[in-house]
Amino acid sequence: VGYSVRFDECSSFETQIKFMTDGMLLREAITDQLLMKYSVVILDEAHERTFHTDILFGIVKSDKAKKAAQQKKLLKVIVMSATLQADQFSAFFDGAKVLYIQGRQHPVNVNILSMYSTLQRVKQTIYKQSLYEKHPKVIFLSFLLDKKRSNQQVEY
Q1: Which residues contact 72 (CB under 8 A, 6 or more apart)?
Q2: 118, 147, 132, 109: which is closest to 5 by C-alpha?
Q3: Structural Rg of the chain based on CA atoms
Q4: Is-contact 41 75, C-beta < 8 A?
């Protein structure tokens, strides 16, 4: 698994899944107009229409047509959104299949911590939850303010 963001890339020839921003995919499409190194492109949060995403929709649509004309393996395109007008996108992509998947909600505990000793408090919260939680598998999502704190958190 790799990623590509504006000034940072972490991938290799062995990378099979690559996360990237719409701007980075658009940059790749400039040099590789058929996106030949990809077999599937997932455009997530499509309802947040930006200049980049609108251009990407046009690129992946034309890529599919060009690859079909050249009898090359077609690019699979998945467009995802929680609030998208799916019928309009289906029509744009020549009647593409629309799947509606009902969302699920999970209980969430919100703990807002002060700036002082944030990492120590996160560790204490995780420890307490793991001791008293009825379900042994607990997932924690911690939002930290900067890269330094994030790196320190990973060290724990």
Answers
A1: 34, 36
A2: 147
A3: 21
A4: yes
Q: Is 46 helix (H, G, I), strand (E, B) or coil?
A: coil
Q: Flag whether the pTM goes above 0.70.
A: no
Chain-centroid distance of CA 55 in Å reads 18
- pLDDT tens, N- to C-terminus, the chain (156 residues): 888 888 888 888 888 888 888 888 888 888 887 788 888 888 888 877 788 888 888 888 887 777 777 777 777 888 888 877 888 888 888 888 888 888 778 787 776 656 556 667 666 776 666 655 655 565 656 666 666 666 665 554
In total, the chain counts a number of residues equal to: 156
Alpha carbons 16 and 13: distance in angstroms, whole number = 8
